[in-house]
Specification:
This protein is of the alpha/beta class and 442 residues long. The chain has two domains: 295 residues, Metallo-dependent phosphatases (Purple Acid Phosphatase, chain A, domain 2), CATH 3.60.21.10; 126 residues, no CATH class. Helices cover 35% and strands 19% of the residues.
Length: 442
């Protein structure tokens, strides 16, 4: 592949703050949210300023979820920020996704959640014409997928899998035929192609293969289509996680999925990617500091604390509600989970817990593990206190897991749930999820 450099920014979830982001309803919403809503505009601004100041890179790629929930005013303000980048000499290529259109646009005013003007899918191409579509060699009208030459003999295949023109989170047969035609033409023209897609092509962590909305529904078929037709890497987002994974087809062709975290909340990263010769270098960068009340914490600690709190509140929320015996059981479970330590849980399950974990509250433990998984380079192998504890818990519930596994196995793919969960907390892919080098064939 010819040399190319670009910045990769995903899931900006830009929200126009003048719409309203305060009050009781807002605070309640944010208690379960991974990323920051009111601060998103400031985060995007300072990140784009940092990118604009780098004279060595002239291209920026953004694979979808540009706005919070498709608010029309958020799109207008976000596009103004894109034009600042363009005026600084940057070429920008975006696709849209499910958070960029529809009738789910909301804001928060006077302690209430209110409806605001959303954005119809049909006007997105015109809105973002200067950020990919005007340079496109071909556009798939129903999905707004496109292909563009972003460097000499290097083309970007922008796959919109989250549009009104195809099943959500899927590359259907019609879109697959369009993709194949673009790859065939690129080959005739002597061009290399890499791709972007909002949904991860490959499950970012093994357990995500069991979550319908965590990756392309037909990811193996799509990975095969791309890899067997010369695409060696793809840039994705959606799951707000740092991961680098590969898939090898039956023909022996490999594709690498570089999934990047949400910009505006933990892990709060963006990437600088360089292709020179047969080397693809991936560098992860922290969201720049901006004016924010962080209670004396550095910005990454502040982001992580919000994410951990959202995980804890989601766990407690799952133990709320219900009637009769179910309600009583949930109430008891919520009380236990809200107060028990890791050591206390170990005693309940009759398993050994390392001394370093015993006094830690279980909710804090769960939040910290969740944050670490999404940061990438997952550190909890069996030789660590956390990894050993998780392995012991899974072994204790082995009889339940063995009952569940047949129900999770589909399409001829059997599930080893214990192995899947252990590999979810410990990276064994051979790549760093944050900074790595991939050797390309071409």
């Amino acid at each position: 592949m010819n040399s190319v450099k670009f910045y990769l920014v995903t899931d900006t979830h830009y929200f126009e703050p003048s719409l309203g982001a305060s009050g009781k309803a807002f605070e309640e919403y944010m208690s379960r949210e991974q990323y920051f809503m009111a601060e998103s505009s400031d985060i995007v601004r300072v990140t784009f300023e940092a990118i604009a100041n780098d004279e060595t890179v002239d291209t920026v790629i953004i694979p979808g979820d540009l706005t919070k929930n498709g608010e029309l005013e958020s799109h207008k303000s976000f596009i103004k920020e894109l034009y600042k980048l363009k005026d600084a000499g940057k070429k920008i290529f975006v696709i849209t996704a499910g958070h960029d259109y529809g009738e789910k646009s909301r804001a928060f005013v006077n302690d209430e959640c209110i409806d605001v003007d959303g954005t119809p899918f049909e006007i997105l191409r015109d809105m973002y014409t200067d950020f990919g579509y005007s340079k496109a060699l071909d556009v798939d009208g129903p999905t707004l997928s496109y292909i563009a030459e972003i460097a000499p003999q290097v083309r970007l295949l922008a796959i919109n899998c989250d549009s009104k023109g195809n099943p959500k989170g899927e590359v259907d047969d019609r879109l697959g035929e369009w993709i194949k035609a673009q790859l065939d033409q690129a080959k005739k023209d002597g061009c290399s192609v890499f791709a972007m897609c909002h949904y991860p092509l490959i499950p970012s962590v093994p357990v995500f293969d069991l979550v319908g909305d965590a990756k392309l529904k037909n990811w193996r078929e799509t990975a095969t289509l791309l890899a067997d037709n010369g695409v060696e890497f793809i840039l994705t987002g959606h799951m707000h996680i740092q991961s680098v994974n590969e898939y090898v087809t039956e023909k022996g062709n490999r594709i690498v999925d570089i999934c990047t975290a949400c910009l505006v909340g933990s892990p709060a990263k963006y990437r600088k990617i360089t292709v020179e010769g047969n080397e693809l270098k991936v560098e992860s960068l922290d969201t720049p500091e901006f004016r924010a009340e962080t209670n004396g914490e550095n910005l990454q600690e502040y982001f992580d604390k919000q994410f951990a709190r959202s995980i804890q509140n989601r766990i407690l929320g799952a133990l709320s509600g219900g009637k009769g015996a179910v309600g009583l059981f949930k109430k008891l479970g919520r009380k236990i989970v809200g107060s028990i330590t890791v050591g206390g849980l170990g005693r309940l399950l009759w398993i050994k817990v390392d001394k370093s974990l015993r006094k830690q509250k279980f909710l804090d433990f769960a939040g910290n593990v969740g944050v670490a998984i999404f940061k990438g380079d997952r550190p909890y192998g069996k030789d660590t206190a956390v990894g050993d504890f998780i392995a012991r818990v899974l072994k204790r519930f082995g009889f339940v897991i063995r009952m569940v596994e047949p129900k999770l196995s589909k399409n001829g793919v059997s599930v080893d749930l214990t192995d899947m969960l252990l590999k979810t907390v410990s990276t064994e892919t051979g790549y760093s999820d944050n900074n790595t080098t991939v050797i390309l064939r071409n």
